[in-house]
Amino acid sequence: MKKSLKHRLAILSDAAKYDASCASSGTTKRDSSRSGGLGSTEGSGICHAYAPDGRCISLLKILLTNFCIYDCAYCINRSSSNVERARFSVDEVIWLTLEFYRRNYIEGLFLSSGIIRSSDYTMEEMVRVARDLRLKHNFQGYIHLKTIPDASAKLIEEAGLFADRLSINIELPTDAGVEAFAPQKHPANIRRSMGELKLKIDEAREPTLKTKRRKRFVPAGQSTQMIIGADATNDATILGTSARLYGGYQLRRVYYSAFSPIPDSSQHLPLIKPPLMREHRLYQADWLYRFYGFDIAEITHGRADGMLDLELDPKLAWALANRDRFPVDINRADKEMLLRVPGFGVKTVMSILTARRHKRLKMEDLARLKVSLKKVKAFIVADGHTPMNLLDRSDLKAMFMPRPEQLSLL
Amino acid sequence: MRIVIDRRGDFEEWRDHARHLLSAGIRPDAVEWLDRAALGDDLFGADEATFETKAALTVPRGFVECAQVVVCHADLAAYGVLYRLLWRLQTERHLLSITTDPDVVRAHQMAKSVGRDSHKMKAFVRFKELPAVEGRTQRQFLAWFEPDHYIVGRTAGFFQRRFTDMDWVIATPKGSASWDGDALTVSAHPACNPELVDDTDDLWRTYFANIFNPARLKVKMMQTEMPKKYWKNLPEADLIPDLIAGAEERVRAMAAKPATTAPKFHYSIHKIKG
User: Fold this and answer.
1) d(Cα A281, Cα A299) in Å, to the nearest integer?
2) Which of A105, A220, A243, B43 gives A27 a disulfide partner, CB atoms 3.0 to 4.6 angstroms apart?
3) Residue B150 and residue B69: Cα distance in Å, rounded?
4) Which residues pair with B3 in a beta bridge?
5) Which B positions 129-158 lie with beta carbon below 8 A of chain A?
6) A308 near A282, Cβ under 8 Å?
């Protein structure tokens, strides 16, 4: 008997949850008031709900099918798993997307799929979903398609005309890891796909000679995901891989997904609690690299094992290891150095730069900007404040360590 | 001087009063702002001021934009904060750049709170479908939402740009907005909860329960972004307590389950002997 739509939705959303991305930001601005259709994108993404795992639910994130001919050890949908299988038709995915959208549950669709028959067969069905949403239903909401490894260039190109974002997962931070755990996937091919897509995106950005208009092609760029903690790769290697992806392929985002136990898991992988704190530190380091002017080497050179400190955020850890760069005078220092003060975010730094043109800033000024004085006082000079010998204290690090949890009686 | 506000969140109303007060040279601490709705029938309130002059005002760029947001704040004190800023701007032209000034900080905090509420409205409004209306092809939807601030007016345009091909109403205790394919109508009149039911909510709840990964419980993170005050109007929210309570057991059961042998098709695909 055919499974009900609800039952299949349960299976195919359960199968999709190991993909971390749910972003709906960074695409072109669109709305329906002129086209008379449905949907808009206004720059910043919107999280329409949060699951108890703390993750934002912005998109309807589902698989077209969880049947798969690949046998990737870390994946819930691998061919050797006994997980219950199901499949949506193209029209069912479209219907769910539109009905969910109309009720304002979602910003759009993130469609991925197990690979059935062949890469091209699967990719073609996914492209049909996107094409029909745009052309038949006049849908202007967000669409993210996961491209299928080894799908033909022509299909990827068509996908890019309708999708806001395309992604292909590099899965594990090293080639050896991919080869060991995903025997049917080939790191070189994955990189080639990313490279080809980057070229096409660059090409579309060039205004054409005749109309001076830019073609809309994957306006929110491409992203990827790495699983963290399934193999022994250290953080320095992981972040090095990210830096190469950002630099070489101009990815918009690299997502880190703490390896999480899955039902009917492979015996080759550890049954561990997902390393959530490690994942969090990697995201912080990724942020420092992209928005705070840090090099990966600076962030990771603090420890011999190439791992980030789990107890301190990477910016604070860097500051403690580089005390000679402090204190920073908030009334004189340049933007680059202000961004390196633990406790200052980008917004705080911008406020400081604006305000200090008109007055000399004191600690009270920072307090009004909701800066934690406790965190910054050792690292800055302000009008009426110098850190004394705080920076020379050997227990400075201890002052920032999380308080030991109180033991409870049994 | 008592000023009575008729339409909360209406920037023009505040601006007209503020212009009069300023040209009459009335100091900010001499003005008391009152809400007509809160006064009820007790009309001792307003001072019927007859101002003659209405000088044109110039304000720095950014002030109007900021004031349009701040005036939506549910705390009536917002009106006074804005007037004090306006007053001080007459002599301190750079005031808005002094991002650490207490009045500027207060206005920014109020603007931030209003902005956040507006963002949460875009996120947490849930439309329910109503029966078709005879003679209209457009589908009919209605949502009930409870904002903290007077934001319906400034947020309605977002819904119009997004849900253009359907008729909709968003009703709130602080006014309502509606779209009929031609015109966007905003009313300040408080509405009542229509308590509607929509069958598609069941599919959404199915999705919400299954996209959750029980091995990654982070309840605090969820509640920071989706505070409990919004839960009562979210069809998925009453699933949350059970999802949290059952998470640990589900992970334990997953780990305890003995390894299985692969299904037949695995062997045929990879041409290996089972």
Assistant:
1) 11
2) A220
3) 10
4) B33
5) 129, 139, 141, 143, 158
6) yes
* Secondary structure (DSSP) of B115-184: HHHHHHHHHH---EEEPPPTT--S-EEEEE---SSS-HHHHHHHHHHHSTTSEEEEEETTEEEEE-SS-E
Tell me: pLDDT of B52 over 60: no
> What is the DSSP secondary-structure string of A97-156?
HHHHHHTTS-SEEEEE----S-HHHHHHHHHHHHHHHHHTT-B-SEEEEEPPTT--HHHH
Q: What is the ipTM of this complex?
A: 0.94
Question: Cα(B28)–Cα(B46) distance, rounded to whole angstroms?
Answer: 16
A392: which DSSP letter? G
Residue B125, beta-bridge partner list: none
Q: In the structure, what pLDDT confidence band is assigned to residue B137 with cuts at 50, 70 and 90?
A: very high
User: Mind listing the pLDDT tens digit for each residue in B170-215?
Assistant: 999 999 999 999 999 999 999 999 999 999 999 999 999 999 999 9
pLDDT of B260: 85
Q: Which residue of B126, B198, B211 is in closest CB contact with A51?
A: B211
What is the number of alpha carbons within 13 Å of residue B187 lying toward its C-beta? 11
Classify A46 as helix, strand or coil: coil
CB A323 within 8 A of CB A333: no
Q: Find chain B residues with C-beta within 8 A of A355's C-beta.
A: 97-100
Which of A262, A264, A271 is closest, CB to CB, to B260?
A: A264
pLDDT band of A211, cuts 50, 70, 90: low
Distance from the A248 Cα atom to the nearest Cα atom in chain B, whole angstroms: 32
Nearest to A38 among B163, B240, B244 (CB): B163
Domains assigned to chain A:
5-221 (3.20.20), 314-400 (no CATH)
What lies within 8 Å, CB to CB, of A248 at 6+ separation is A195
DSSP A189: H
How far apart (Å, rounded) are the C-alpha atoms in residues B15 and B19?
6
For tokens 């006049």, the residue is: A138
pLDDT tens-digit map of B215-270? 999 999 999 999 999 999 999 999 999 999 999 999 998 888 888 889 998 998 88
Instruction: Tell me the C-alpha to C-alpha distance, in Å, between residue A293 and each of A298, A336, A375.
Output: 10, 7, 21
Q: Give the gap in angstroms from C-alpha A201 to the nearest C-alpha of chain B.
A: 27
For the segment A164-198, what is each residue's pLDDT rounded down to a tens digit?
A: 999 999 999 999 999 999 999 999 999 999 999 99
Is pLDDT at B48 greater than 60 in this prediction? no
Q: How far is CA A93 from the centre of its chain?
A: 24
